[in-house]
Design goal:
about 220 residues, alpha/beta, Nucleotidyltransferase, domain 5, 6-stranded mixed β-sheet, about 15% strand, globular
């Protein structure tokens, strides 16, 4: 058995709440107008991996342009279930999100060393599921550390969760903060990749041009 919690704006009295809709979308795909997709240079699917709670967030935008929330939520799996069942449930939900949103890239939190080996193992396994799902569809995957994501949205790589949530709320012009924190972290990863990815692409193009010039 598994459960999926989804945070959607405006569907609950508090603005964000757990729900199990027919499709795992905070905003159905047909609400994203073609005009928005034309303006947006990229759509990024951010994944804050975890077995108990896996944060998911989809953001449209580009460096130097306004950002638009496309969808956000969290997948929950019961701690009492075996790992294989939990990973399978996570894989099924991520596949549904990829099918619903068709992202141009997937940004996953890079696992770093923790004191709790059991926790870091579960995080790594969940992150690997997201990577495989994206690779199966030929979607580029980027790994960003928590510090990189924090620095991208707050300017401080050591910002706390409240600061990250506050800036994500402000950058996406949300009426209420995304909840739980896993959702905000996933959105921060997506924003991080939108901004860092654009810079990295410009650098890659510059290096390619320089390389071609040197070969002449």
């Amino acid at each position: 058995m598994w459960l999926s919690g989804l945070q959607s704006v405006g569907d609950t009295p508090g603005g964000w709440g757990d729900a199990r809709p027919a499709l795992p979308v905070a905003f159905p795909p047909n609400r994203c107008s073609s005009a928005i997709r034309v303006v947006a240079a990229m759509r990024v699917f951010g994944v804050d991996p975890g077995l108990t709670r896996c944060g998911l967030g989809v953001v449209d935008g580009a460096s130097g342009r306004s950002l638009t929330l496309a969808g956000a939520g969290v997948v929950r799996t019961p701690a009492g279930d075996d790992v294989a069942s939990r990973l399978l449930a996570l894989e099924q939900q991520i596949e549904e999100w990829l099918e619903a949103y068709h992202p141009d890239a997937v940004a996953v939190e890079r696992v770093f060393s923790q004191h709790n080996v059991r926790t870091v193992m579960g995080t790594a396994q969940a992150g690997a599921v997201a990577i495989v799902c994206a690779a199966r569809r030929g979607i580029p995957v980027a790994l960003h550390t928590p510090s990189e994501a924090k620095a991208a949205v707050t300017g401080n790589g050591r910002a706390d969760k409240a600061q990250v949530t506050g800036m994500v709320t402000r950058l996406l012009q949300l009426t209420s903060p995304p909840h739980p924190a896993d959702t905000a972290d996933a959105l921060a990863l997506a924003i991080c990749h939108l901004w860092r990815g654009a810079a990295e692409q410009r650098l890659a193009r510059a290096l390619a041009i320089h390389s071609r010039g040197g070969d002449r």
